[in-house]
Design goal:
Elements (H helix, E strand, L loop, with lengths): L3 E7 L5 E6 L13 E8 L5 H10 L2 E4 L12
Antiparallel strand pairs: 1-2, 1-3, 2-4
């Protein structure tokens, strides 16, 4: 059976998204009540980088709506 991943959006700051494994505890640094689930996906339908982040850190946290100006300047 393949792992399932929960996709969540922050209730007050909707640009922030979180992905966690359905069969693992919610990350200790966060409060589950602050997040609203938007969907559940099978591992095959989740980006490799996101799955890697979840395996390494227990979650993948990102922000929608970044602009090119938000990218660090190369030196």
């Amino acid at each position: 059976m393949s792992a399932r991943y929960r996709f969540l959006v922050h209730r007050r700051h909707e640009a922030f998204r979180l992905v966690v494994r359905e069969d693992r505890p919610f990350p200790a640094d966060g409060a589950e009540a602050d997040w609203r689930e938007t969907r559940v996906r099978e591992a095959e339908d989740v980006n490799d980088q996101v799955r890697g982040d979840v395996e390494r850190d227990g979650y993948s946290l990102f922000r929608i709506g970044l602009r090119f100006a938000d990218l660090p300047k190369d030196r």
